[in-house]
Amino acid sequence: MPRQFTPSIRSEIFELRPDYCALSIVAEGVQNAARHRASDEIIETVRAAKPWPAWGDAHLDAWRAAYRGFGAKPQRTPSSAEALARRIQGDGQLPTINAVVDLYNALSARFAVPIGGENVAAYVGDPLLKRATGHETFDTVKDGSPCLEIVPAGEIVWADEHGVTCRRWNWRQGLRTRIDATTTRMWFVLERLEPMPMPALLEAGRLLIATLLKLSPGAAIASTIIDRANVTPRADETRCDRCVSASGGRST
Question: Is the pTM value of this prediction over 0.85?
């Protein structure tokens, strides 16, 4: 891959949630589209069957507790996974953006896990999960117009050297790093708390990788597990047309 892209997590995050674990996936050479049959198949299955894991409600409860732990109000600003779950369990619909974004949203709803997707080319430096200092900016839309917000100190955010890329851990993504139809280098992060089983996290990642490779058979994909024991991430699998595992070197 052209430039090494290494997400990292500050130890203060594990002080708040020792059970936090992220599966990071970087994909190079993806050809996105408005729609694709491979992603449509997963999306339609989720819409029709509305599958829900036995531990799904408890996992969303864990994220609500995590939000309250840094002062957020999850009833007003729920995690991305909860927002999608409400939609799919309600009217059975999911937002339609493009093939890749629709795919990871469907998997998020299927596995009750927050999944973010980012444009690597838009990053200044590498992503970092941390507490905001109170000086970072976040680009968003207010009253239909782009604007910059100052993120309150103490809020859990993903950020790069330019500013915040996702507020309240996994609540809202900024405009700058969104995946669009022209994006070819992509970063995905799947975020787990107890009681989501590790095999379920890895299966969600495997399905994401496998489907990305159907969209783009020549893509190169690397996956990384970051948890309390591995605050500095270790990259495991790199590849290509044969690599569809997101196991991070762990057996499922």
Answer: yes
